[in-house]
Amino acid sequence: GAAAATGPGQAQTLSSLHRDYVHSIAFDHYGRRFATCSGDRTVRVWDQQGDTWSSAPGSEWQAHRGSVTQISWAHPEFGQLLATCGSDHAATVWEERVGGLGLPGAQSAEATGTGTSGAAGGNQPATRWVNKAQLTDARKAVTCVQFAPRHLGLKLATGSADGIVRIYEAIDVANLNHWPMNGSIDAEVGGKGGELGVTSLSWCGGRFEPPTLVVGGSSGAVSVYRYSDASRAWNLIVSLPKHDRGVLNLSWAPNVGRSYHLIASCGQDNVLRIHRLKRGTSTDGQQKTTASLELESSQALETGGAEVWRCEWNVTGTVLASSGDGGVVQLWKSDYRKDWSCVSKVHGDTQGGAAVAAATKMAS
Q1: Which residues lie closer than 8 Å to 298 by C-beta, 6 or more apart?
Q2: Checking CA distances to 103, which of 37, 210, 233, 281 falls within 20 to 30 Å?
Q3: Residue 212: beta bridge partners?
Q4: Is the pTM of this model over 0.90?
Q5: Distances from the Cα of 235 to the Cαs of 4, 113, 187, 273, 286, in angstroms?
Q6: DSSP 210-251
Q7: 3-state SS class at 317
């Protein structure tokens, strides 16, 4: 397969160097690195060198015993950390170590990922990724993983085919081997979902909001959960319009000074929606008023019937990118009437039958 990378004013097509489909692409905080994961059980990290992208020696390794389904970067404040999840019922946290190893492929007893790179980039230092923690609470495949926003601390959410979202936290950021589970959400259990359980999740990045997640599943449900300090539990606060078939991807828009939130969802029903949520208040049994969210509107976008597999917001939450099996990335913006429409299309190279299926992270 191929991955598309964008330089200043131009598009660059890269050979993914994977031996199976690329399931997920994730850029780091600064947009100067990205990682890919694949059905071939491996992960590869790419670095920007001028206007080109390359892999340093040791930047590819076997991350799981089965297909790797998703990948996520932690905020760089916590170091160069990656989280991966796979069909082997596990989520794994990796930390990068650079240089000073001597022999290629040398590794410590705690490292299970051995780097092998066929695309060494010039004079880049050798690197390796060390397995710091393996989270194996899931009873089925782990389908999605995402680090929480920086202001919530070093937290990690995973979603599994067993229907449960699990939240882990590194209490001591200096000890990345210890990730106790400090919460869970029964999102798609009890017959609500199909065999795939939880299929996607996304954190709310609002700095003034309590920990909040949107979760999608194979039942088509799109649900917003919020952590309550009073009950020390995650509670369902909003149920968004369902997809007729399973949810494929969710993305919570970054909030840059807006009084409302935006969430994008796409599903196997070929529908791409943008949900607008406004802040509200709710009162519990003790008449204690807490901040809540209320659904204000949902708009299904005119995709022309094309399949939409991935959706992703830009850094300001003003442009949505969506992509599917047609090798086209569509960019969506809102007008003054709050109606969303396609303003641009980026056509990938689909020759050879390999379409670009991961939405591009835009720089603005």
Answers
A1: 240, 241, 273, 274, 275, 276
A2: 37
A3: 226
A4: no
A5: 39, 37, 10, 23, 17
A6: -SEEEEEETT--EEEEEEETTTTEEEEEEEEPPPSS-EEEEE
A7: coil
Structure tokens at 301: 């976008």
The length of the chain in residues reads: 364
Q: What residue has token string 């003054």?
A: 336
Q: Are 115 and 55 in contact (CB under 8 A)?
A: no
Residue ranges in the chain modelled with pLDDT below 70: 1-11, 100-125, 190-194, 282-290, 349-364
Q: Provide the 3-class DSSP secondary structure of residue 351.
A: helix
What pLDDT is recorded for position 104? 40
**Cα(130)–Cα(108) distance, integer angstroms:** 8
Q: Smallest Cα–Cα separation from 325: which of 275, 266, 241?
A: 266
CA-wise closest residue to 361 among 310, 321, 308: 321
Q: What integer pLDDT is reported at residue 113 of this predicted model?
A: 53
Residue 261, burial from CB neighbour count under 10 angstroms (0-12, 13-18, 19+): buried
Instruction: With beta carbons less than 8 A apart as the criterion, state whether 196 and 148 touch.
Output: no
* Cα first-last separation, the chain: 27
Instruction: Give the other-Cβ count within 10 Å of 352's Cβ.
Output: 8
CB 187 within 8 A of CB 217: yes
CA 279, distance to chain mean position in Å, is 24
What is the C-alpha to C-alpha distance for residues 126 and 56, in angstroms, rounded to an integer? 6
Which residues, in sequence order, are bridge partners of residue 294?
278
CA distance readout (Å), 307 to 47, 302, 324, 327, 330: 30, 11, 5, 11, 12
For residue 12, the surrounding DSSP H or E stretch is strand 10-15
> Measured between alpha carbons, how far is 211 from 165 in angstroms, rounded to an integer?
14
Q: How many CB atoms within 10 Å of residue 165?
A: 24
